[in-house]
Amino acid sequence: MKKTKQLLVCLVLMSLGLGSAHADYKLNLMQGVTQLSHELYGLHMLVLWICVFIGIAVFGTMFYSIYHHRKSKGHVAEQFHENTTVEIIWTIIPTLILVGMAVPATKAVIDLDKVQDTEMTIKVTGKQWYWDYEYLDNGVHFESHLDEASEKTHRISTADPRTVANYLLEVDRPLVVPVKKKIRLLFTAADVIHSWWVPDLGWKKDANPGFVNEAWTSVDKPGIYRGQCTELCGRDHGFMPIVVIAMEQAQYDAWVKATLDKQNQPPDLSDEPRAVLMSKGASVYLKNCVACHQIDGKGISGWYPALSGSVKVTGNMDQLIGFIQAGTSKMPAFRKLPDNELAELITYLRNAPELGNNVGDEIQPNAITPKYDDDE
Fold first, then answer.
1. What is the third-level CATH fold of 274-367?
2. Which of 21, 37, 296, 310 has its CA 20 to 30 A from that of 255?
3. Is residue 376 scored above 50 in pLDDT?
């Protein structure tokens, strides 16, 4: 009984927004920062107040009748059947109410699909477990992963999530868009069904493998807007957030130029100190390997092999390079991984104390050459 009372108290506090200092509980939809989100919020409020009015009218009449016509006051129940006038009234009025709600609802649904006359297009591809963004108008293309602080924290049982800003809602590379420009977004997936959702934009859209869905948005004001994948897309479903940064046009143009300049630069293949190789290799591991092989390198029994003490990892380095580049039926081929990142990753895999390996060697980026081993 005591636990039941505690649970009820917690539920009441949560509903009032008082249950936690770390959560912002709301009793209504957010209005968002786009024309569509405002339209949908207005539709929601219209339907809500209609329902409130109906509830007050129906329950008010019912409670009044029950109280003022009770048997203790000497009232006797009326005996009547099939009042045609009443039946006409309670048929016509609900019909008019439904039509009144259907008109703005239909307009909102039509507006959601108005992807014509867009000024730029971004292709969004969901992958396990990150997002791939390709700007079809200017050539910007990058992947967006969960940030390192959240990645480490959620995989270490003793870590405190409250010490991480925007825990599980931060990424290493956000989607950047200009304000007050109509943007078309194309959604697909490379593996399973994902769903792209940023509440401030007012809608969400599924990303299905083999299909292309589309939507549009136009952000009214600059800011940072966060969201998440809302489709149960696998074991790390909860760790692929979305961050959208809206900028003024001049700032956006500068970001595009800087991003393209960096994107078109060849990777730096100069020698790196061992400490730098290890530090950068840890970041590459967190981004590409940790989901399957775990932060301690022990893998998942029956699914993903352990890296700790693995002969494949600590053995012949050329074979390890070929294995990583070629991939397997379960592991993607990392042929497009830049040579500097591949060198950093291999050095880390073979020598990371947290993975339980200490071969004592290293490889520099300029020593990486294609060694595909399709027999692995």
1. Cytochrome Bc1 Complex; Chain D, domain 2 (1.10.760)
2. 37
3. no
d(CA 205, CA 326) in angstroms, rounded, equals 33
DSSP state of 168: T
Cis bond leading into 129, ω under 30°?
yes
- CB-CB contact of 247 with 253 (8 Å): no
Instruction: Give the other-Cβ count within 10 Å of 132's Cβ.
Output: 16
Model-level pTM?
0.83
Q: How many CB atoms lie within 10 A of CB 21?
A: 6
Mean pLDDT, residues 346-356 taken together: 94
Q: Using CB atoms within 10 Å of the CB of residue 284, give its burial: 0 to 12 exposed, 13 to 18 middle, 19+ buried.
A: buried
Q: Residue 18: what pLDDT?
A: 46
pLDDT tens-digit readout, 120-165: 999 999 999 999 999 999 999 999 999 999 999 998 888 899 999 9
- Strands annotated E in the chain: 120-127, 130-135, 141-144, 175-178, 183-189, 194-198, 203-207, 213-217, 223-229, 241-247
First-residue to last-residue Cα distance in the chain: 60
DSSP state of 269: -
Amino acid at 154: H
Domain at 120-264, CATH homologous superfamily: Cupredoxins -  blue copper proteins (2.60.40.420)
- Residue 223: partners with Cβ closer than 8 Å, 6 or more residues away: 33, 200, 245, 246
- 306: DSSP letter: -
